[in-house]
Write a sequence for this structure.
């Protein structure tokens, strides 16, 4: 009798979990980096210098234990295919100490690059991909330091209906000190709206992302068509000289809902953290 009820309970749990996870894609599988491509400044595509990006204990880690010096080796690990409209969930945390020689601004600094150029199109000595960065920052234990900010290597956006050209701008988030895990939600709706969300609240949003501006070096000039709307692109995670870990990188593809506002809103209401 008890065995029967246990079996039924397990079936109910399984059905519930399936309903909750239906539509989500795990970009990081917790086992390996087979679906990802690495591009590190000064190194050819897929030269994962000193095993910078690795998987240990089901976590994607960015580590510098094999480095003798930093030498501006800004790195990015790209998922294998582009997306246009989606919700991206990233759970991250900063650990340990920054590698000596890393810039002061890169202390507990990483990010998710959105609508990015492909890794194949980056030049050997290009520091950052032309993209939109949802910047992840950790606190120093004392000062206020927001996370899920925006930085714009080779791009511009509209804020409050006006073209915004400075490189970085802060969100309204609280500070996350120490080595705690942080869950970031990013809503990307093509070239219309992008929102950064934490704990059920939007802490930053912008519209009309497009190519333009500076803050990216050694790129192929033919790819930087200033004013061109950014409707889709690749997603990558950063290596910027401070160890960081990612335990979840998941995506819900919204592309099929983009022509039906009512369905889009219904789906977003269902999948976003309240």
């Amino acid at each position: 009798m008890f065995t029967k009820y246990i079996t039924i309970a397990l079936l109910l749990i399984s059905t519930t979990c399936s309903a909750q996870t239906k539509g989500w894609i795990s970009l990081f599988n917790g086992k390996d980096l087979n679906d990802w491509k690495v591009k590190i400044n000064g190194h050819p595509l897929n030269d994962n210098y000193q095993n910078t990006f690795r998987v240990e204990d089901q976590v994607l880690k960015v580590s510098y234990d094999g480095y003798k010096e930093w030498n501006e080796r800004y790195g990015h690990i790209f998922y294998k295919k582009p997306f246009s409209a989606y919700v991206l969930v990233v759970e991250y945390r900063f650990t340990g100490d920054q590698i000596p020689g890393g810039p002061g601004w890169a202390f507990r600094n990483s990010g998710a690059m959105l609508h990015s150029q492909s890794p194949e199109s980056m030049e050997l000595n290009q520091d950052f991909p032309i993209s939109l960065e949802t910047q992840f920052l950790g606190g120093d234990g004392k000062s206020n330091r927001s996370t899920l900010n925006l930085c714009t290597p080779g791009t511009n956006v509209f804020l409050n209906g006006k073209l915004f050209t400075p490189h970085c701008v802060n969100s309204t988030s609280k500070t996350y000190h120490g080595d705690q895990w942080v869950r970031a939600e990013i809503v990307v709706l093509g070239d219309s709206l992008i929102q950064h969300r934490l704990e059920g609240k939007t802490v930053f949003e912008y519209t009309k992302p497009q190519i333009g501006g500076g803050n990216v070096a050694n790129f192929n000039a033919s790819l930087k068509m200033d004013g061109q709307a950014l409707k889709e692109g690749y997603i990558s995670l950063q290596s910027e000289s401070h160890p960081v870990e990612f335990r979840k990188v998941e995506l819900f593809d919204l592309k099929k809902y983009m022509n039906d506002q009512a369905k889009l809103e219904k789906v977003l209401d269902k999948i976003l953290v309240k």
In short: Residues 2-21 form the longest helix (20 residues). Residues 1-20 have pLDDT under 50 and may be disordered.
